Every structure is written in structure tokens, then in C-alpha cells.
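Researcher: Here's a chain I'd like modeled. Treat it as a single chain, no partners, no ligands.
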Amino acid sequence: MAAPMPSGRVHFGVFELDLRSGELRKHGIKIKLHDQPFKVLAMLLERPGEVVAREQLRQRLWPADTFVDFDVGLNSAIKKLRDALGESTEAPRYVETLRRRGYRFIGPVENGGASHAEPVQDAGSAADVPGVVEAGLVPAQAGHPQGAPQREDNAVGKVGAFPETTAVGRDLPSRPTAVSKRWLRHKIGIAVAVLGVLAASSWWLVRPKPGPYAIAVLPFKNLSSEPDSDYFSDGLTDEVIHNLSLIEGLQVKSRTSSFFFKDTPRNVHDVGKQLGVNLVVEGSVLRSSDKLRINAQLIRVSDDFPLWSGSFDRDLKDVFAIQDEISRSIVNELRLRLGRGQRRYNTNFEAYERYLKAQTLVNNRGPWDKSELRKSIELFEEVIAKDPNFAPAYAGIAHAYTWSNIGGIPTPTAQLMRAASEKALQLDPLLAEAYDTMGLVYMQDLAWGEAEMAFRRAIQLNPNLSVPREDVALFVLFSQGKVEEAVQQLSTALKLDPLSQEIRKDLALVLPSVGRYDEAFDNCRRVLAVDPSDSYAEQLCGRVLLHQGKLNEAIAIYEKLAKRGPGGEHWLGYALAKVGRRAEAEELASRFPDSPFIQALTYGGLGDKDRAFEALERMAAKKDSRVGFYPVYPELALLRGDPRLSELRRKLGLPQIP
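Model: Modeled as a single isolated chain. C-alpha cells:
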């Protein structure tokens, strides 16, 4: 019989689940747990000791009208839940997997002091054998019925290594003969040689080996008691990532992927597997008054071996020296050379602190969070006022400006963006991030050639940055009709930043132009598995359904999205036209007279080439950079071969679509 769902706090092991606030705590410390894993845990705790079927989880977590790959989504939720609880599938303490059936909560559960489930000891388990737990061969785990599995060949006194001394019933000579003495010396010589080989092998295994190296810098843990002080430890992590990314021969995973593991239990093997790295840097930051303590270590993923560790007790003003020392220590340990153009900035601490806060706001902003962007711009302005020579602040504010508008930045903002990018490059001609924002500045002028050179220069200066690859793929290569090369750059960006949902969505946008619908669908559903509320990913999934002939399914998605708010109208207009609901498509286009990007696709679906071209011309007049790749869309294939398209692309400085 299922236990009724508790209404307050549920205790199990060292954990406490607060159902009202939606928080999970371990030893009283809050652990980050996303919505879907939290719901899974709550469902399992409703019925401790009983099997909860996968279908029951699907019905509770993803309603019937939710567009998501259930298997991927549930597996992801269970994985995140296990990470939060610090357990694995092979050795569960709380959540047991029953293949093809579901999951079961196997730990002791208490609600208001009453236990809902008691651990049941399996008959014949290793934990039942007297002396096994006491001897330490099987860990005694509260709440779990069984200990760790034992290897059969671990028995003491196994026969085979030295048969003349261990074989049962063999008569041994009462004293050694000359022959036996020689044989004994021979054996000792062999043993010494073997030990020498083993020692050399051990050194060979633990020594730092030459590349290739792929490294991830996990977010440094913030041990400070000051509220809202994560920005400092996060910013410090960013700077170490940046310093390491300038090292030749070292592939550094980007911030987006590294910060996926923030506030989660650290399992180096899981990090290595998910990010494709063989080295991990982790550490902690303790800030107290004007003092700073930083601990850091470099770990080899394959065997959890610490290749290097360091502890730094310094004044706050020495933060730059600490960053540099951490980076250089790792470089020396790995026998790598520092890359060209590495530069250490020596701004004052107050300016640097504001810079870290601004960067955190930009990096953590939601896709349409204008308030966060405005605040970041204000902070960057304060940094520049305190230190007019700090180049990263100019690149940072230019980056923030790029999110001010989609489909054409207002002229005053574009001018500020250009001035900031140019100033950053004037102060530091080798700052890769500044070349990337400069490329976006050129895109505002639809200057494709200049934009391409800027993006490629950014990639050359820092090949580990994923953003310039993303930008050159989407804004330049895709617009030029070089779709396969665009896919290649996006794939490389995803390898550098394997947990970036933005890059996956870009791939889902580009792949249909070369008919790779299944891959596009797979990428957008992977995004939805992580965030089922991502409306843009739902738009992209609906678009694939359009091209697979599932028009009504696609329309249902877009109509559902329309009830939430704006977004996806261009795909909806095209779909309505293709399914024969022409009057509705016309009405939709008329509702958005100032949105030519909606009208271009809607009229393309209606087969009205004249009005589709007129909409593209208005996109060009507004300097909407999408005017470059719209004709590459399969939805507007009817325009290809028309002299008007050739003339439009000639005026835009773009080649003809192959």
C-alpha cells in the first residue's frame, strides 16, 4: 500500500526534502536540484519500497501535450537525481533501477519522526555473514540491504603463486640443499627484477604524459559566508578558464559546460565522460574581509590521481597573481608551452569585482532577460569609469549590447557596440572576445567579409572559444550557402561546449537546409529533455515535422506556443499555408506588418514570390542579418533561380546559393 504523500519535510539518510519550498538539503546544506529530478524524487518518496513504473513517471512529469523525448528526459532526470544524492546505478543507496520496469526508493524514509520504510535484509547476502562487515570487506550502509559485491578470487590463501610453499600436503625438506639455495637466490633475483619493473611501471603510469590534453575547470566552491558572493568564485573560475584556453596544445571546455556541474556532487569520472576530458581542475574560494584563501588541484580523470595541488593565502589585491600562478603551475606540470598573446591585467580590485559581477549577469541571463542585461551594462560602465584601460570590460559591454535586440540592433546601440569593440582591440590587439564582438558589429552593417575575418581571427587567437565558431557558422557560412562547413563549425563548437543548448538549437536550425532532418530533430529534442519549457526548441521540432509531412502535428505545436506568448509565428504562417488554410495564413501575415521575417516565410508557403521578395527587401533595409540565410531555408527554395534573388544577394555582397 502506498504511503500518503507527506505535506512537509521528508528525511532519508543525511538528506531532507522540503516539499513546500522545493528544496533538497544534505546535512542542512541546500543542494541544487532541478524541477524534473525533484518531481521524480517526490514520486518515489510517495511509495517507498514500491516500484514506480516509467509510464507513471511520464504521466506525472510530462503531460500528453508536452513535446519531449520521454526516454531521454527521464534518463537525464534520474542521472541528475543520482548525482545530487551522490550515488551510482551500480551501487544505489536510495534509488534502485528495475530494468524496463521503473524505479524504487530503497532507503529509510522518515516524515515527522515516523519511519515509512525499513530496510529489508536479503537472505544470503554478504552482509548476513558474521564478521564480514566488521572486517571492512563490505561497507555497512544504513538503509541499504546489501554490501558491495565481492570478487571470488579475493580469498585468502589462493593456490597458484608459489606451489612449493602453499600446496596443501606437500612434504618440505627439513633444511635447504645446495640446489634449493641456488633456486632460492634465483627466485629472489626474479622477485627483485619484477619489483623493479613494477616500480618503473608505476612511475610511468602516474607521471604526467604528453598531450593531447582536454581539461575542464569546474566552478570553484564558494566557502564564504557573505550573501550573494558567488559572483566572486564564479568569476575567478572564468578567469582560470580563460588563462588556460590560451595554452597551446590544451583543449579547454567552455564555461557553459563546466558550470553545468555547479552545486552538484563532484564525480570526476562522470565529468570526464560527459565533457570528454581527461583532466579536471577543481577548487574552493574563501573570502574574509580583505583576505583570500584559494585551494585548487589538477586531477587525472582516469584514476582520480591528483597531478598537482596548491593552496594560496593572499590579500585580495593579489587575486591576479593567484590566477596566473594556478595557470602556470598546471602548465608546468603538463609540460606545455604558454600560448602567444597571454596577458595578465592589473586593474584595481574594485573595478575587477564589478567586472566579475557583470560577466556573471551576462553569462547567466535568460534569453529575453532585459533587466539583467541592463544591470550588466551599468556594471561594465562602472568598471570602465574606474579603469579606462581594462580591455575585457569593453569587450564585455559590447557582448551585452549584442543581446539588446534580435533581428537588428537600434542604431544608437550599434554605435556603442562598435565603439566598445574598437576600444577593446586598441587596448589589447590579441583579445579574442573583442574580435568576436567586432564580427557582430560588422554583421549589423551586413558586411559579411569583414565579419568573417573578425570571427576567424577570434578562433585563431583562442581555438577553445565556442562562441566565435557559433557566430561564423550562423551569420557568415550559413548565409553564404556553405551549409556543410557551417555544420562542421557548429559541431566543433559543440565538442568544445558539449552541454550548450544554444549550439544544439543552432544545429537544429541549420541541418534542415541539407536535408538532415533526423539529426535536427535529435538535437532539439535533446534540448527539450533538459528544459521542456524551451519554446524555441519546440519551434524547431515543429519545423522538422513540417518537412516530414506531419503538418497538423506541427500546427498543433505552434498554436499551443501562441497561447503562451509571441514566437514561432513565421513557422505557423508557413504551416497554415502549406496545409491549405490560406485565409488564416493571410490574416496572420497582416497582423505583423512590421515583422517582414514573418511575412517572408508565410508568403513563401503561399507560393507568393512577389510578396516574399518584398519582405526580404524590407529585412535588408532593417539590416536584419537573417536576410542572408533565409533564402538558404528549404521553405524558400521556390525563390531560387529567380533573377530577383540573384540581384538581392549581389547587393548584399553574398554569393549565389549553390
